[in-house]
Amino acid sequence: MLNTKLEKPLKLGLPKGSLEESTxxxxxxxxxxxxxxxxRSYKPYVDDVxxxxxxxxxxxxxxxxxxxxxxxxxxxxxxxxxxxxxxxGAVHVICDLNYSKATSMPARWVLAVPEDSPIxxxxxxxxxxxxxxxxxxxxxYLKKHxxxxxxEFSWGATEVKVPELVDxxxxxxxxxxxxxxxxxxxxDTIMESYPQFIANLKVWESPAARRKLESIALLLQAxxxxxxxxxxxxxxxxxxxxxILKLVPALRNPTVSxxxxxxxxxxxxxxxxxxxxxxxxxLKEQGAEGIIEYPLNKVVY
Length: 301
What we know:
With 301 residues, this protein is α/β, with parallel strands linked by helices. Helix content is 30%, strand content 31%.
């Protein structure tokens, strides 16, 4: 990695838990190599002298950044909102990072009740009991809808608390499968949340630190842009170019280059991986040769 020679490394908070593996995979695609020889270590090594990473529960990363114990970090938009509503602090959001534990879909905090519950809307929660982890987030949601209800903190296994202990829960899900498996019904979605890359306000004011943080953000977003895309290049007779271009989508326009063999050209483009299996046979039928598909780590728009 290119050393920006900061006076001291940036203390980088990375989410411990469900987002841990997908976060390390994203950084790997972005060009940052982590060494986690000890799976229980909370301070992994990274091949960038300007970064001092540590694994921390995502619920706490924002709070530590506002307090100055961390310089920057990645945590969910939901936990940023939860922490800032309690502390009245602030952070600088450098960029959104659209990834999650298992899919590219956002995580959702949903209001759920038993399938046979009479509760149909948020207004039906008046005077009821709700269990959740992001208490402040839920209180703000109820206040927005003019509903007064008791909101209690849940340490986990929230789904099993209804209907014996509480009337409703607010829990996180990507696909809704865990909600359905516990015979619950979603009443409303309170928030959709992706991870965000954030920084301490004073750290962001430093020109050198800001350049480093902006470079990291660029690389992380480039890695996400490359997700589910591949490069495709091929040779073809120049006379077939118009027909081939109709088959080949591109971010803008494919790159077209002449070959040393007269009357032949090469084209190169980026396409969604899902369409390649349909595209290659069609390209071959139109006279394309030397078709090569290759993986991508980063795409910078």
